[in-house]
Amino acid sequence: MNLHGTQTIGENGHLHIGGVDTVELAKEYGTPLIVYDLELIRNRARAFRDTFQKHGVNAQVAYASKAFSCIAIYQFMKEENLSLDVVSGGELYTALKADFPAERIHFHGNNKSYDELLLAFDAKIGCIVVDNFYEIELLKEISESRKQSMNILLRVTPGVEAHTHDFITTGQEDSKFGFDLNNGQADEAFQLVVNHEYLNLLGLHCHIGSQIFETDGFSLAASKLIEKIGEWNKKYGYECKVLNLGGGFGIRYTEEDHPLEPHVYVEEMVKTVKEETSKRQLPMPEIWIEPGRSLVGDAGTTLYTIGSRKVVPNIREYIAVDGGMSDNIRPALYDAKYEAVIANKANLPRNCTYTVAGKLCESGDKLIVDAPLQKAEPGDILAVFCTGAYGYSMASNYNRVPRPAVVFVENGKHQLAIRRESYDDLILNDMEYQLNK
Hints:
By secondary structure, this protein is α/β, with parallel strands linked by helices. The protein folds into two domains: 8-30 and 299-426, Lyase, Ornithine Decarboxylase, Chain A, domain 1 (Beta Barrel); 38-294, Alpha-Beta Barrel (TIM Barrel). The protein has twelve helices and 21 strands. It has helices at residues 22-29, 38-54, 71-79, 89-97, 114-123, 133-146, 185-193, 216-236, 262-279, 293-296, 330-334, 423-426; strands at 8-9, 15-17, 20-21, 33-37, 59-64, 83-86, 105-107, 127-130, 150-157, 179-180, 199-205, 242-244, 286-289, 300-312, 316-321, 340-342, 352-357, 366-373, 381-385, 405-410, 413-418. The strands form three sheets. Strands 4, 14, 15, 16, 17, 18, 19, 20 and 21 form a nine-stranded mixed β-sheet that branches. Strands 5-6-7-8-9-11-12-13 form an eight-stranded parallel β-barrel, surrounded by six helices. Strands 1-2-3 form a three-stranded antiparallel β-sheet. Helix 4 packs parallel to helix 5 (114-123). The longest helix has 21 residues, at 216-236.
């Protein structure tokens, strides 16, 4: 069993996170409950940021907030002097409500609406990452009608395939994201914006995938982008101010995963960008990156209460918990793997094997298949590790199950970050039937 961040096993045999007994957290806040280890997030954020500073490179580390969004996490990232990557009007609105500095917000998305872009202009955010030709038309219309400038990056697909799952690769040629670097689309987009009166082209952006455990893909993508920037510099005298190499840095979910430390990714990026720009006699751009999962993924632990048990003779033994695909769709969506421990028996050997099923009315609602665990009994607290990314943010009310509560822990203290939804919350937007009355 691999412990993450500040996780320890206390003298009472219980799992502790941030110096707080998880069994006591479950009693106080109920289950399902997602617990975030702030010290782990803080150390990871500083490792990315400090490596750029160590090498004397101007940079922005932008939290890719689609991994987990709420007011409290945005305020925490502000405290750590990070920038912010948002991908919808809802995330942008939440960031503004959290009083996150607008000049450090970058707005992504492959189909931003007119109203979402207006919100970005109203807030005077730091940058819009332009994804397609339709968006260029909208940006020109809005900026010209308002006579308001906006910084932009062009998102390009460099044709680099990350070594990851097909569902989470986004840098290859066949992608819904960005302008293709190899078929002339990026050149066409460049021509449309480079001399625009109100659109200030800072540079290029790419994102080659997620859950990546090597640096080769980032280096190759950086080389391809700088090669294109070099072409534009020769032809038009264009100077790139920002090179955004995206995110996708992997974390450890199970023993099969072997992630690199943050400084390794950053150092390889810095080395490649310095070499490639020097070779072409280009000015060194500011480097932006967008860690999301690698900041919050293994900092999150979901606590469940174990309920029913079912034995299928000679096949498997199931235990069911009081959550499931409504708070973690990833196992059902793309066969994501997790490890777990029974939090109130964490000091005991894991000599039983169970398939952990959720309570949702779907046969595919299984959180972990054949998990090695301590002997499970109804009322035990199951802790599933590394649920901090794309758990709550992809949660739903399927089967009218309320979304769970979220708590932050650090240095023996805990605070509620998102309250548990109530049944009243579930019907808040429902309207009564009136037709044919």
